Every structure is written in C-alpha cells, then in structure tokens.
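It is worth pausing here to work through a concrete case rather than discussing structure prediction in the abstract. The textbook approach is simple: state the sequence, then state the predicted structure, then interpret. We follow exactly that order.
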Amino acid sequence: MMDLILWRHAEAEDGMPDAKRQLTAKGQKQAQQMGAWLKARLAQNTRILVSPATRTQQTAQALALPFETVAEVGVGASPVSILTAAGWPDASHSVLVIGHQPTIGQLAAFLLCGEEQYWSVKKGAVWWISNRVRQDEMQNVLRCSVAPDML
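Step two, the predicted structure:
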C-alpha cells in the first residue's frame, strides 16, 4: 500500500512572473494550519516533493520538514509526471506532493475515477489517496480531503 498526499499551495498574491508569486497573509495562515495537521499524521519516512514556484516552497516551509524541489511537479506539470516523480503506486513509502491547480484536481480525478477531469481543489487543501489490493484488484481509496477552513 502507498499513500499519495496531494497538497495544493496556499493562497498566493496575484501578479507576474507567476513562478515568483508569494503567499498572502491568509495563505501563510492556511499553510501553517495545514502543515501542523499534516505533520501530526505523516509517516516518518514520507518523501516530500515540491514545485519550484515560490508559493509552493513557502507552503512546504510551513510543514518544517525536509523536502525536495522537483520540476516534474511544478506549474504546468501533467498528472503523469507527478505520478512518475512520486513512484506511484510502487514506492515503499508515502509521498506528499505540493503543487498546483489544475494538475492536482486532474490527478485526484484520474486516481479516483480513472480519467482526467477538471476537479476544483481549494487553495491550501489536501487530498490523501491510498492504493491497496483487494481480491486481487488494485484500488485507489480517498482517505480524506480537507481544506484549511475545515481545520
């Protein structure tokens, strides 16, 4: 069984260049709240993959755990590139990906429905998906979906 945790970056400023956008005060609060919630639940050996964009780096820093900056989960990434970077579904550890819309929503839809759709994921929200084998069949299971305003 592998856990793949998808975390959309917290609220960021508008503006250009896109890759340099920073978190707003609200976004910093969202990241702190979700970071504390995640830190209490993540397995000790969880691999954390983060987009190079400033807003995702700031979101990750709120978690206060070591992470890897990976272009394959950056702005404009495809669901397939994220799955490949994470080693889904064969990694021997949990993977947390901190990335962007629309890719996070497309990836959640693909894992849970078998096809890419444009699902909306709130800023700062987490989708925790596990895979398992039941009766010789691989299944993906939504363990939880939580937005910062629900904490």
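Step three, interpretation. Residues 2-150 form a domain with the Rossmann fold fold (CATH 3.40.50.1240). The longest helix spans residues 25-39.
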